[in-house]
Amino acid sequence: MDTDHRPLLSRLPFPETPPSLYERVMHAIDRARTSRLRARFALAVSGFVVSIGAAVASWSAVWTELRESSFVDFVRLAASDPDIVFMNAKDLLLGLAETIPLGTVLLVLLVAFCGVGVAAFADAWRDLRRTRFIHYSSITN
Amino acid sequence: MEQKSDHELIAAYREGGDDALDILVRRHLAAVYRFLHRMVGDVQAAEDLTQEAFVKAWRRLSTFDSSRSFKAWLFAIARNTAVDYFRKRKAVVFAALEDDEMPDISAAIADERPLPDEVLERGDMAAQLESALGALPPKARSVVLLHETEEMTFQEISDATGEPLNTVKSRYRRALALLRKKLTDRLQ
């Protein structure tokens, strides 16, 4: 079935590839890559800014809550009389868990989010600079 | 680097080797452009679609399944890009993109002989053939081109397009028969 038609299809004109097509394709890929990195970059920057803002705004409330809670007293007791802590470890741990301020947990999560944001920011920034360099080189070379 | 297989180049690119992408594009550019040019029959549109197909391929490169043929995968993207182009242009009635619109050529299917020498020897054969090919529905045209000019097997075309093997074969047979009919009609 296949070979019978080879002579027929082999008569199709062979279109020449335009000389500039390779450059156009690579530039189109570079543009798409830059656009994707810009989107990632913008997302990372907004995440970073939002998380920093949230951390700063909640810091005073967290600090007050931490001072007012008995969490610090538990820590002090554990440091000064570890024997008592070990003897009543179960009760003390339950008590400790109850005194952990929610704000502090939130702060920890926010800081972690900040960390991820910073990492993504740095990564996107590095890629963006690298892409722009490659794009620039391909134009100038 | 130039000697590496497509799969090795993809692995190198995923590890940060930008040269690997350059080589992949250079290696397949002419074939993809040729295929798209024959699909759409227009130089400017073929150039634009080639760019679009490679950008799509680059976007999906991270999800490329290494157990598949890269060439078949790339041509599937190029083919879908061409079909989308026809849909957007609306120059082809949407239903005509399907083979259902192809006329009943069951009688011609049985005839698998090459075209008469008289037809092949005509000086304007290339133009006639290109014109007849352009009159085929895009999906049928793509199967003929992928199989005949890009030398992809029916299995590769089936894998690339996600269509059953028998559908691909049947589409090919009907397209060739229709092509012969169109050429013979033009000759007479």
Task: Give me a quick take on this structure.
Chain A has 141 residues and is mainly alpha-helical. Chain A is 84% helix and 0% strand.
List descriptors.
heterodimer, A: mainly alpha, 84% helix, B: 188 residues, mainly alpha, 10 helices
What does this protein structure show overall?
- The complex is a heterodimer of chains A (141) and B (188).
- Chain A is an all-alpha fold and 141 residues long.
- Helices cover 84% and strands 0% of the residues of chain A.
- The radius of gyration of chain A is 31 Å and the shape is elongated.
- In chain B, helix 4 packs across helix 9.
- Chain B is elongated and about 60 Å long.
- By secondary structure, chain B is mostly helical.
- At the A-B interface, helix 1 and helix 2 of A face helix 2, helix 3, helix 7, helix 8 and helix 10 of B.
